[in-house]
């Protein structure tokens, strides 16, 4: 049994007969009244994100998990296929287990969170950022350089990302997977 002081990002807990992963948390100690922990929890079975507040010292059921490296192979509809990089076993996960499936490129190495008790895959942690090639974007108009001006661009996985005006087709860009936002252009 853990308490609210053990809450951290990525912690897997049992809450309301479901398994959740802590996406965000904030310890709050108001001037009046008791302290509490405000959290955002993502269901590992449905993918639904809920907000919840735990009072300080509240007991929580922690789920013992292990992390393993898997390589993304391909997608079939809403099913995504991965291969363990150690023993080459393959698993199939539903789209709801992934945080940003539209940014997943074939061959990408991801971390799969597995419940230690029954070896059931629960969720997929993407890398902090991915490097993808821009396959389509409108050309930037010369002189149209207002502050922070952006345009939509389609990357090789089919995802749409807003990029600065100087980005052209064929450029490699770094995308933050948590927010799905452009970070920088990669020189090739």
Q: What report would you give on this structure?
A:
- With 188 residues, the chain is mainly β.
- The protein has three domains: 2-62, Roll (SH3 type barrels); 65-125, Nucleic acid-binding proteins (OB fold (Dihydrolipoamide Acetyltransferase, E2P), Beta Barrel); 129-186, OB fold (Dihydrolipoamide Acetyltransferase, E2P) (Beta Barrel).
- It is built from no helices and 16 strands.
- The chain has strands spanning 2-3, 12-15, 18-28, 36-43, 49-55, 59-62, 65-76, 79-84, 90-94, 109-115, 120-125, 129-137, 150-155, 160-164, 172-176, 181-186.
- A six-stranded antiparallel sheet has the order 1-6-2-3-4-5, with no helix packed on it.
- Strand 3 and strand 4 (36-43) form a beta hairpin.
- It starts with a strand and ends with a strand.
- The mean pLDDT is 87.
Radius of gyration: 20 Å
Q: How is the biggest beta sheet arranged?
A: 6 strands, antiparallel
Strand order of the largest sheet: 1-6-2-3-4-5
The averaged pLDDT comes out at 87
Helical region count? Answer: 0
Please write the CATH class name of the largest domain.
Mainly Beta
Give a topology summary.
Elements: E1 2-3, E2 12-15, E3 18-28, E4 36-43, E5 49-55, E6 59-62, E7 65-76, E8 79-84, E9 90-94, E10 109-115, E11 120-125, E12 129-137, E13 150-155, E14 160-164, E15 172-176, E16 181-186
Antiparallel strand pairs: 1-6, 2-3, 2-6, 3-4, 4-5, 7-8, 7-10, 8-9, 10-11, 12-13, 12-15, 13-14, 15-16
């Amino acid at each position: 049994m853990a308490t609210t002081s053990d809450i951290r990002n990525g912690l897997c807990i049992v809450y309301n007969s479901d398994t959740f992963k802590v996406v965000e948390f904030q310890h709050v100690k108001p001037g009046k009244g008791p302290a509490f922990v405000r959290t955002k929890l993502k269901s590992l079975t449905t993918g639904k994100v809920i907000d919840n507040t735990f009072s300080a010292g509240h007991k929580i059921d922690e789920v013992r998990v292990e992390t393993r490296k898997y390589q993304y192979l391909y997608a079939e509809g809403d099913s995504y296929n991965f291969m363990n990089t150690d023993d080459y076993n393959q698993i199939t996960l539903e789209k709801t287990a992934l945080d940003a499936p539209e940014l997943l490129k074939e061959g990408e190495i991801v971390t799969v969170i597995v419940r230690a008790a029954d070896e059931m895959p629960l969720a997929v942690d993407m890398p902090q950022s991915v490097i993808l090639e821009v396959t389509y974007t409108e050309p930037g108009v010369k002189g149209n350089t207002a502050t922070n001006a952006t345009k939509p661009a389609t990357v090789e996985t089919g995802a749409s990302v807003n990029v600065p005006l100087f980005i052209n087709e064929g450029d490699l860009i770094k995308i933050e997977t948590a927010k799905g936002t452009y970070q920088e252009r990669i020189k090739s």
